[in-house]
Amino acid sequence: MRWVNRQVRRSDRLMLGALPILLLVVVYLLLAVSRHAENPADKILPLPGAMAESMYGLIFQPDQLSGQLIFWADTLASLQRLGLGVGISTLAAITIGLALGILPPIRATFGPLVTGIAVIPPIALLPILFIALGLGETAKVGLIVVGIAPVMIRDIAAHVGELPREQIIKAQTLGASSWQVMIRVALPQAMPRLIHAMRMALGPAWVFLISAEAIASDVGLGYRIFLVRRYLAMDVILPYVAWIALLAITMDMILSFASRRLFPWAHGVGH
Amino acid sequence: MSTLLTLRDVWVEYGDKIVIEKLDLDIAEQSFVSVVGPSGAGKSSFLRLILGQEAPTRGRIELDGTPLVPECGPDRGVVFQRYSVFPHLSVLRNTMFGLECPKAPLSGRLFGSARRAARDEAAAMLEAVGLGDSFDLYPAQMSGGMQQRLAIAQALVQRPRILLLDEPFGALDPGIRADMHALITRLWRDYSLTIVMVTHDIREAFTLGTRVLALDKRRHDPHAPHRFGATVVYDLPLDKPVDAPEDKDHSITIDENGNN
């Protein structure tokens, strides 16, 4: 049988998917054990016990200076920044993207500006944001927005612009005004695409969040990773990275589930 | 019968390319006009003119004696070959769309008793096109024939002065096409519609129409083919018995399952 035709059953799929991950873990453990055999104080590849021990402190024991549970304070701060950044960008994408996509005069006026902003590397704007907005929360959220909003806006605008002309015409022959074409024809059809755009934007959003936190912050997942790097504390960095991965996967799954649940018509409901 | 649509000396030009030249035409109320012609002979441009999707370069188009605004409006309904239903709305909501828009300028949605009235009107129209038991389906769950039925119901619920069909049955297979022919003929008779249908299918044009228009170029310059536009080269009124016998069975499907 050709490989392109080999379908994998659901149970087998879970097993096959877990295989490379388990393999990676085993390889890591082997390497860590062999390094510790040579040097019991090795910090580069910590053993699971060491990781659990230092994470226990961060998760359950209040920090002596601030009295906070550091792990949860970091998570909360980062999620808040990420949520604000992605939320503002999503709002901008659906309003501006919709108007750009469906109203030719708006597209002609603001299309080039959005394209221009979208091609600037966002990190190059970070100094401007720090100068203009200070080193506080606003600048970090601002970086995420500057980084992902233009891409999302362009994606939504392009999607709305590609709606079949026939649909727009049909809506008008049914008595719809420009506003009604926007909210009853274009907006609902842009919603699944918006969720898709959010899923695509979450990756870059994390990059900008970690960057902003690494440069100027006093709390946050990215801040912690870059802080403990100075002590080669891989026993904190590795669990933090795994936690970020877990958060990202969870968000992606929630969005994907929401899209299928809210917009079944967009996901090939069965014939 | 009185004249509904008048075209006088209508020209359509794109730059120096002439698509339609010197088109003079009167379309009577309650007629079923089929438009045929080779590809590129301006059939689509002709339809877009009447639809208001584009304006004539020269000349004048009148609907009911008033000049036509070059913008689509609710007085002209349309069914395209594809994409003329909204994929994100159920069958019932698709049909209610035309009833909701004019009455709810801000939200585009009706509530309460107005909504129930619109729902009942839409439901009646869906019964008439044979979608009586598919109210909650989405277009993606329906066959091509059912989608076209929906598109027709959607247009008719608006009670347009004139119904424009742009190769509406071109993408359907022959059996279903025959069903749709019976359906559109019945609707045309029941609702006293005026229909302009563009088609590639000569047989369809003659079976359905009360008048067949052939669009083509009258003259041809081999060195500058784009300098002459198309116009009506044949205008054939078809004498049909006015009171054609009603279809024997009332069902609009010819197969027994009725599942086209």
Automatic annotation (TrEMBL), chain B:
Keywords: ATP-binding, Nucleotide-binding, Transport
Gene3D superfamilies the record matches: P-loop containing nucleotide triphosphate hydrolases (3.40.50.300)
Positions of the ABC transporter domain: 5-242
InterPro entries: AAA+_ATPase, ABC_SmlMolc_Importer, ABC_transporter-like_ATP-bd, ABC_transporter-like_CS, P-loop_NTPase
GO molecular function list: ATP binding
Keyword field contains Hydrolase: no
Pfam families noted in UniProt: ABC_tran (PF00005)
The keyword Transferase appears for this protein: no
Signal peptide: none
PANTHER family: BICARBONATE TRANSPORT ATP-BINDING PROTEIN CMPC, SPERMIDINE/PUTRESCINE IMPORT ATP-BINDING PROTEIN POTA
The name this protein goes by in its record: ABC transporter ATP-binding protein
Organism: Novosphingobium indicum
